[in-house]
Amino acid sequence: MSPRTRRHIALLSPLAFALAFGAYADDLPAPMMRSAATATADAAPSTAAFEAAKARMATDMAAPYTGNADLDFVRSLLPQKQAAVDMAQIVVENGADPDLRHRAEAMAAQDQAEIEWLMGWLEKHGQP
Predict the structure, then answer these.
(1) CB atoms closer than 10 angstroms to residue 81
(2) What's the rounded Cα separation, in Å, for the pair 43 and 40?
(3) Number of folded domains that form the chain
(4) Per-residue pLDDT for 28 more than 60?
(5) Separation of alpha carbons 41 and 50, rounded Å
(6) Whole-number pLDDT of residue 67
């Protein structure tokens, strides 16, 4: 191996290592990344409500795909829209900013209208 090749390997090895193993740094379990701010957030009533809304959405989105793009789109979108309504309600009930609470109400109403339309689409197409 030539000196030039060895030098290139020596210079590129740290980069290759960082690229190969740097991604593992993002995969730390949540408890290892907790802080004092997180502990304060955990004590807030809104935190449990947000976590519950996200968990419901994740569970509801776990439905298997059918291969029908229209049906899969509607079924995938419904849990997202419902989670948005749920989270907006959390802000309405717990938020401090009146402008944001007002906007959350408007967003929830819009998402609820879209949920109703999507549910109607499912019914129209004979889907549960």
Answers:
(1) 20
(2) 5
(3) 1
(4) no
(5) 11
(6) 97
- The residue range of the domain holding 114 is 35-124
Which residues are CB-contacts of 15 (< 8 A; sequence separation ≥ 6)?
none
Residue 77, in any domain of the structure? yes
The 10s digit of each residue's pLDDT in 58-87 is 998 898 999 999 999 999 999 999 999 999
pLDDT of residue 82: 96
Residue 85: what residue type? V
Q: What is the DSSP string of 11-51?
A: HHHHHHHHHHHGGGGGG--GGGG--HHHHHHHHSHHHHHHH
Q: Which residues contact 5 (CB under 8 A, 6 or more apart)?
A: none
Instruction: Give a yes or no: residue 12 inside a domain.
Output: no
pTM of the model: 0.65
Per-residue pLDDT, 7: 63
Residue 105 near residue 113, CB atoms below 8 Å: no
